[in-house]
Amino acid sequence: MQRPSRLLLDINVWINNYLGSRPGHDAARDLITFALERELELYFSISSAADIFYLLKTEFKICSRRADGELTESAALAATNAAWACVRNMRQLAMPVGLDASDCWYADKLQVVHPDFEDDLIMAAAQRIHASYLVTEDKALIQNAVVPCASPDRLLSLLQALEA
Question: Rounded to an integer, what is the distance from CA 5 to the centroid of its chain?
Answer without folding.
Answer: 16
